[in-house]
Amino acid sequence: MGFRIDEAVAYWYNKHPWKSSSQQAIAQAVVQRLLALVKAEGKPLPGVITTLEFFKQKNIPMAVASSSNLEIIETALEALNIRRYFTHICSAQFEEYGKPHPAIFINTAKKMGANPLACLVFEDSFNGLVAVKAAKMKAIAVPEHTNFSNSKYAIADVMLRSLEEWNEEVFQSLQ
Hints:
By secondary structure, this protein is mostly helical. The chain has a single domain (48-173), classed as 3-Layer(aba) Sandwich (Rossmann fold). 43% of the residues lie in helices and 10% in strands. The strands form two sheets. A three-stranded parallel β-sheet has the order 3-4-5, with helices on one face. It has a two-stranded parallel sheet with strand order 1-2. Strand 3, helix 6 (126-134) and strand 4 form a beta-alpha-beta unit. The radius of gyration is 16 Å and the shape is globular.
């Protein structure tokens, strides 16, 4: 998690080289499969809508800064019916380096006209957390359940088991 698709494919190719298809063809096949799955089965995780509404009510601008391919991001936002919440959509697909490099977060803050020190990022991957902290932003970790007890996630400012735990008290603790 946290890698761009091209980086993930290169990682697995370096571990177990194959001859049947190019890395680019595999990456494109992964993108097409993800698009099909998102369109067919995509639904917001518990707490996503209430968290987005929380920030909307406070007039706090929101952006997506993801390692995912832009087409996957856009498809997911439409399938989940949440595109309207975000002022900017940014993909590390267009950055020289993906996460854990902080470029995606720094450049997204620039596009928003925001000071990175004033940004709060929700992140599910360890590579993403490293990138957030390198960008000098605050991090809310919402890892997969299997990673919640992983001590590496302690670099986050706050850990949540689910976005259902997000509330005013947690928000105020970050001020």
